[in-house]
Amino acid sequence: MNFRQRREDKNAVAPLAAAMTVIPTQARRLVYDSQHTNRQRLLLKRSEGNKPVRGDAAINTAYDFAGVVRNYYQQNYGYNSWDNQGSDLVLNVHYSQQYNNAFWDGDEMTFGDGDGRIFTSFVNSIDVTAHELTHGVVQTTAGLIYQSQPGALNEHFADVFGSVIKQAFKKQSAKTADWLIGDNIMGPTLKGQAIRSMKAPGTAYDNRLMGKDPQPDHMKDYYSGS
Fold this sequence. Notes:
Blueprint: E1 29-33, E2 43-47, H1 57-77, E3 89-95, E4 102-104, E5 109-112, H2 126-140, H3 148-170, E6 180-181, E7 196-197, E8 206-207, E9 211-212
Parallel strand pairs: 1-3, 3-5
Antiparallel strand pairs: 1-2, 4-5, 6-7, 8-9
Helix pairs in contact: 1-2, 2-3
């Protein structure tokens, strides 16, 4: 999700309601429970076509949102999964402890539960799921490396599709949409704020827990790194 440019990445690639009718050629969804460890694909809790699990909303939300994003790409672009080869959509939830991020690392998505203060569970915002899966699409199309300007473009494309897919899911127009990324995962005292704003960069958040949103809104504020 790259909150303040943090990304966990093992392959040097960027780490981001019920689904519609399943298209037969689409990828399977496989949702794993990391059980608050740093392990991925630890315990398979729900796979394609299985009924919702009991007692774990995160598993079911991850499954449903992955289906919405998968179907959006298939129905609007004829793109089959993140690689256009129908590869499985692997999602890991309950990753680590109080983990304030989500990431894509080459062939799977991983979501923390948040610390309960700054962030809640990262699976609760469909734009976050769309953001992370879009990193896979960028990886297999543009192939942008995750550093400098190519890395910024990688994040940008993930944010664009994250927001557009949220708009489609909520049946919003570009005019009525808020263009916020991650507003549904903010902590209880940070309601109304978000991780980023695409409509007004630099205004997504301003609070004592996170500081001031540093996102530039003009090339004159270009930051090349330290």
